[in-house]
Design goal:
The complex is a heterodimer of chains A (about 500) and B (about 400). Chain A has about 500 residues and is an alpha+beta fold. Helix content of chain A is about 35%, strand content about 20%. Chain B contains 15 helices and 18 strands. The chains are: A alpha+beta (about 500), B alpha+beta (about 400). Chains A and B meet through α8, α9, α11 and α17 of A and β1, α1, β8, α6 and β10 of B.
């Protein structure tokens, strides 16, 4: 993975830059010792590592603003970082850049049940928000699988999803407001406890911008009343085709389950070996359908989904009769990644989305690719919204396997785009899918996105080298070449 | 002399904008024209009539996605979705009556451009939460796309969010992918009669915080209920606080019964069933109670829901004010007697104190030229808005000045 060439002239000023940052963040908030910076050298995409030039850990919004202002004036690159759990390398440091960690922003500031909102600092974990309100019967809906560790600020950077997002939306649908510091060091507020901001939807634009537009220093999220009941069905099918047809039929019947997850046979067996959840090992596909809401509704829908599953060729249907049983249905799915980690020294997790009807096609293409690249693949799948997580199994100690795994992953994502889908459903582009952006977008599409970046960060100092395969200077992007001035074209009627 | 360019397809839209850029000729973008009176008045000689870009291009109910041209009549889309027991969950408003046209004239593109969001906004979001992808021509005369035809996607910046609510100032949208959802089997409404604004906000808050999945919460003061076509509301003789519960039959009945019990201490309870519920929530969505008299200005005010009663109480002190609220108190529709400034300073000072914004949705051209239609922005955000506008439309060709001066 090629990163922008580090700027030697900046790296030579390291001591001077560190001293200036110490002037802003006193005490131990500026780290320059290599062994202390080691923990920041990678994020959840741990195949890539890079020590930052300096780590700075501010505690206040004013410090963040002063750091960014200084870095802009000094021409120093900045990489923001939350909890470092991201899976696409968005927080990978730069050798000539300052790593700005938000870990000290770890307090919940206000719980406001009247407005069903929580105001929090960005370093608070996703689950930390739910923990703060669950005794009163509320929760924060988006639930990425890293929710015990990932920060809400990182969730905003990545627009994180989770298993419940078909019904409850992604991060972007659950954030009400942010305090946001630009690379100029200006402190802005978008949104608040009211619904949606006036003017351009900057809140929506910032969410999912992968740390390229600014740094979020405070977050207001909406919280929801916890559904009074949740029950799940565990359904086995002979092949993924029947499981896919069942998913389509559930939705065609007007039912939007809280969660609808699919696993293929290799994933079922890996999970079963690991946690003994009682999954049918011979099933070609397994579906977990969770219904949540008022008890009377859940009981009614469980019956309807059971009928639909049976009409679509289910070979086994189990319905949870207790919380323990429901959790047991989920145990295998939730352990899918570590389970695969047990049967293979290494794996990479992909994250494409396809139109759901293309599921049989992508699975058959993947088994061809598996032969071509001589690597195994196991699939878990957010079936309701078409978000695939193929796990490619490899051994980094075998020469060439990492490269083959990456090529396999790129082939899968390219196929997703060919089938009308996208490169990433919830993990973000980062560095991992950066060079595949051209598969989905034209040069013009990408330039328009980069022009939006220029509106926030004209010098390109915030998290460069991520998301976009090519860096362009803003001045170059701003130029216009328009032809066609002569005539109002004969084919267009004028009145 | 005003002229109109009427492209037949996206390619011709690109040609038309290229011509406009080369000639420095700003354009007014029009889909079906139902919302032309919304926003700041701006002077252009040439209209870009997108009405030929109409029709549903692709609709797959099982994928929960519909693709259509921007000028597709909303009525056509709603009919098609209803035939498949689906809907646009953001409940797009039909503002034609409020703005002085015949009803049901609006387009899908228009509802996105104003980031429309009806009573279900509080549960399911606005247009911004349902636009999945689009194709468009920027003010650089370049065709580009963002988003995709799938419901879960984080590839690249979320430009669909910025396009929603941009009032045609960034790009001419040529194709739209929007998320659709199942239509509820039954729609019931629990009514609490005779509450004042403060009690109403408390009752709505209690309902929203319950486990009954209330999908809308509105309050219509006693002076407006007579305007309803729904007899239960019209003849209530008191204010009406309404809580909507929708979904599968057995669930709706049980939740309604439980909610009635929980709200009994607030006042007299009534219940609307599906037909009456649908009529009532259309009235709320389309601001029916404040349509007449046409010359009076109407404000749309968004504040934190729990502040709704205080803000409404302050605003109702203005001479001749009439108002009702939606979104559990968080959306206040305010009508004031016609004046030169629509009491802009007073309205905005009240809203600023609570945190939120006020948009002058209806007023004469002169008033909309004299006072800011959209809530004034702090200087750094205004500057950022200008830079974002410039990134899409550097020559200010597309609806220039419709939102703010220069934007």
């Amino acid at each position: 993975m090629l990163m922008p060439e580090p700027d030697r002239s900046v790296m030579e000023r390291r001591e001077e830059i560190a001293a200036a940052l110490r002037g802003i963040v006193p005490g131990e908030g500026v780290i320059t010792a290599t062994d202390e910076m080691r923990v920041y050298e990678t994020d959840g995409l741990s195949v890539y590592r890079q020590l930052p030039m300096i780590v700075v850990l501010p505690e206040t919004t004013e410090q963040v603003a002063a750091i960014l202002r200084y870095c802009k004036q000094a021409g120093v690159k900045v990489v923001p970082r939350g909890a470092g759990t991201g899976l696409s390398g968005g927080a990978l440091p730069l050798a000539d850049g300052v790593l700005l960690g938000l870990g000290k922003f770890n307090r919940i500031l206000e719980i406001d049940y009247e407005n069903r909102a929580v105001v929090t600092q960005p370093g608070v974990t996703n689950l930390g928000i739910t923990h703060a309100v669950q005794d009163d019967g509320f929760y924060y809906a988006p639930d990425p699988s890293s929710q015990i560790a990932c920060s809400i600020g990182g969730n905003i950077a990545e627009n994180s999803g989770g298993v419940h997002c078909l019904k409850y939306g992604l991060t972007t649908n659950n954030v009400l407001g942010v305090e946001f510091v630009t690379m100029d060091g200006e402190i802005l507020r978008f949104g608040g406890k009211h619904l949606e901001a006036d003017g351009y939807d900057f809140l929506g634009l910032i969410t999912g911008s992968e740390g390229l537009l600014g740094v979020v220093t405070e977050v207001t999220v909406r919280i929801l009343r916890k559904p009074s009941t949740a029950r799940a069905l565990l359904v086995g099918f002979p092949t993924p085709e029947e499981a896919g047809a069942c998913v389509a039929a559930v939705i065609a019947n007007g039912i939007i389950p809280g969660g609808m997850e699919m696993m293929d046979n290799p994933a079922i067996n890996a999970a079963e070996d690991f946690v003994n959840a009682g999954y049918p090992r011979d099933a070609g596909a397994l579906l977990i359908v969770e219904l949540d809401g008022p008890e009377v509704e859940v009981d009614y829908l469980i019956g309807r989904v059971k009928e639909i599953a049976e009409a679509n060729g289910a070979t086994e249907v189990r319905i949870s009769e207790s919380e323990e049983e429901r959790n047991n249905f989920w145990a295998g799915r939730k352990a899918a990644f570590p389970a695969v980690g047990r049967i293979s020294p290494d794996y990479i997790c992909m994250d494409g989305t396809i139109p759901r009807k293309k599921l049989p096609e992508i699975l058959s293409r993947m088994s061809e690719m598996s032969k071509k690249h001589r690597l195994r693949v196991a699939n878990v799948f957010h079936a309701g919204d078409g978000n695939l997580h193929p796990l490619i199994l490899f051994d980094a100690n075998q020469e060439g396997e990492l490269e083959r795994a990456e090529a396999f992953g790129a082939d899968i994502l390219t196929a997703c785009v060919e089938l009308g889908g996208v490169l990433t459903g919830e993990h973000g582009v980062g560095i991992e899918k950066r060079d595949l952006m051209g598969e989905m977008f034209t040069e013009i599409d990408l330039k328009q996105q980069q022009r939006v970046k220029c509106a926030f960060d004209p010098d390109g100092l915030l998290n460069p080298g991520k998301v976009f395969p090519q860096l362009h200077r803003c001045a170059e992007l701003g130029r216009m070449h328009v032809s066609g001035g002569q005539l109002p074209f004969p084919d267009i009627p004028r009145f | 002399m005003a002229s109109t360019l009427k492209p037949d397809d996206a390619r011709q839209v690109e040609e038309a904008i290229a011509w406009a850029v080369a000639n420095g000729e700003p354009l007014e973008l029009i889909g079906r024209g139902s919302k032309r009176a919304l926003g700041r008045p701006f002077q252009v000689e040439t209209m870009l009539d997108l009405s030929a870009l109409s029709g549903v291009i692709d609709y797959e109910p099982a994928e929960l996605v519909l693709t259509a041209g921007p000028a597709t009549p909303m009525a056509e889309i709603e009919k098609l979705l209803a035939e498949n027991n689906q809907m646009l969950a953001f409940e797009p408003m039909d503002l034609t009556a409020l703005l002085g046209g015949a009803s049901s004239e609006g387009s899908l593109g228009g509802s996105l451009m104003i980031n429309s969001g009806g009573p279900r906004r509080i549960k399911s979001g606005a247009a911004r939460d349902h636009l999945l992808g689009f194709e468009a021509v920027s003010g650089r005369a370049e065709s580009f796309k963002s988003g995709a035809r799938v419901v879960k996607n984080v590839t690249g910046y979320d430009l669909p969010k910025v396009i929603c609510g941009s009032y045609g100032t960034l790009a001419a949208v040529t194709k739209i992918d929007v998320k659709v959802l199942p239509r509820p089997e039954k729609v019931y409404t629990v009514l609490v009669l005779g509450l004042d604004a403060e009690q109403a906000v408390r009752a709505m808050g209690a309902a929203m915080n319950s486990a009954h999945e209330v999908s809308a919460a509105a309050h219509v003061p006693a002076n407006l209920t007579a305007k309803s076509a729904v007899s239960y509301i019209r003849e209530a003789g008191a204010s009406v606080t309404a809580l909507r519960i929708e979904g599968f039959g057995p669930s709706v009945e049980r939740r309604c019964a439980e909610l009635r019990e929980e709200l009994a201490s607030f006042g007299t309870i009534e219940e609307l069933h599906t037909m009456n519920s649908l009529s009532f929530w259309l009235e709320v969505r389309d601001v029916h109670y404040l349509v007449a008299p046409m010359q009076d200005p109407v404000w749309r005010i968004s504040v934190p829901p729990a502040s709704g009663a205080t803000v409404a109480a302050d605003l109702s002190k203005l001479d001749g004010a009439a108002w009702f609220s939606d979104w559990s108190g968080g959306l206040i529709w305010l009508q004031l007697p016609a004046s030169n400034d629509a009491s802009s300073a007073e309205v905005r000072a009240t809203v600023d104190a609570a945190g939120g914004h006020a948009t002058l949705v209806r007023a004469s051209k002169d008033v909309r030229a004299a006072v800011p239609v959209f809530h004034p922005q702090p200087a750094p955000i205004a500057a950022l808005s200008r830079r974002v506008k410039e990134s899409f439309d550097p020559k200010q060709i597309l609806n220039p000045g419709r939102m703010y001066a220069g934007i």
